[in-house]
Structures are given as C-alpha cells and as structure tokens.
Amino acid sequence: MKPIPVKGYILQNEEKGGDHSHRVYITTWDGRPVVHTHPFSGVTSYDDGHDHKYAGVTEPAPSGVPHVHRYFSITSIDQGHTHVIQGITGPAIPVPGGHIHHFEGVTTIAGKRPHSHDYKGVTGKES
C-alpha cells in the first residue's frame, strides 16, 4: 500500500497541574487542501448620517474540526472616510450543504466627526 502524504500542525494545550493535550490539524491530505474560507459582506449600522458597505473573505481554517475564522475588511468610502472591521467569527453552525459562522463587532473610529458603526452578520458557506 502506498503511503498518503499528509501535512498539518499540532497545537499543544497546557492544562493546570502540568497536564497537557495536543490537537492535530491536517491542512493537506494526499496533496489536496483540507482548509477552507468563507465570504462575508454586509452594511454597517446607520450612524452620523450614513452607513458603509463591506465585503471580504475570512482567513483559512481547518475543515472537519471545531473552528473559528479571523476576518478583516475595510468599508466603502462614505462621507470621505472608511472604517476597519476585524475580529473572530463564532463557531461553525451546520446548515444543509456545509456550515456558516456568525460575526459581529464595532468598526474603528473615523470621520470628520469621529464615530464608529456596529456590524453583524453571517458568513456564506465554506469554499
């Protein structure tokens, strides 16, 4: 039987009292990637007389195990400025044909009259 090439990484989890465990995350199996990303997009809350649109793709995360994704995007330019949105999604939520993640937060502060916007949504299915 021919060996199957596998790549990945191990995370060590230190517990109180010196105990520890390891989690193995496989990133490729037989040369095929086993990580995925999610598209996300939305519109911020309406503050200071306007809102902003945003869109992006999450950072990759392992498939088939409990996980979250980091995300980052810069909003559309409205009233002469942009905001940054960034954070970590919630855990995977199974849906028919895959899974999604919730995300929410507050933008960075910007604008002639400094302000921020709230945002929240769900990612698209994994790709």
From TrEMBL:
UniProt xrefs under Pfam families: YmaF
Protein name: YmaF family protein
InterPro entries reported for this sequence: YmaF (IPR024307)
Protein's organism: Paenibacillus stellifer
